[in-house]
Amino acid sequence: MGDAPKRRLPVVGSGAAGAAPPRGSAAAPEKRKLPVLQSSGDDEGEDRPPWHWIALGTVAIFIAWLPLAGLVNTLLRRMIERAGDAGAQGSVRLAMVGLNVIAFALAGVAGGYLVGRFGGRAGRREAAASGAVVAALAWALAFAEGAPAGALGWALLLVVVVTIGSAASYAGGRAGLRSRAASGPPRSR
């Protein structure tokens, strides 16, 4: 590249080959096209390392969980308003915990499915890890708010939440891997 002679662009109106014709002239200049490199689709770049999919799965779980939790808690708020505070002690509190666990598990399945389906070398283990990370982050947020539960209560809550998150995400990752295997290898255009 250093030994090749340098090409200069023609000055407009100089009459050089490839230069724009003077105004009012009918002849259009010859259009030059740049070469385009097209990939065959087989080589779409490197796969992400599996640990990247843990972070992507974590984000996907949060994105799915936040609207579900908002919907569940809006419905529960209406139940509490109708029942009053006296009726909210037993069954509504149990429904509050149960429906929030279901929302978290559904989000875990969705995030795990994403990791399993599109994760390249990532699979069930990375999907389960993303669910565990989300559960630990949610636990840390609850702990930071300082609800009274005692050390044993907080430790037990961490174990339960991480177990739910990783099991749901593992199941989603497993379903995603089955879906990936059923669809076959990616097709090139």
In words, what does this structure look like?
The chain has four helices and no strands. It is elongated and about 85 Å long. Helix 3 (124-145) runs antiparallel to helix 4. With 189 residues, it is mainly alpha-helical. Helices cover 65% and strands 0% of the residues. The chain has helices at 50-87, 91-118, 124-145, 150-183. The mean pLDDT is 81.
Helix percent band: 55-70%
CA-CA gap between termini? 34 Å
State the low-pLDDT regions, or none.
none
Shape: elongated
**Total strand segments:** 0
Q: Structural class, please?
A: mainly alpha
Rg on CA atoms, Å: 29 Å
Which terms would index this structure?
189 residues, mainly alpha, 4 helices, 0% strand
What's a quick, concise take on this entry?
The protein is mostly helical. 65% of the residues lie in helices and 0% in strands.
Indicate the topology.
Blueprint: H1 50-87, H2 91-118, H3 124-145, H4 150-183
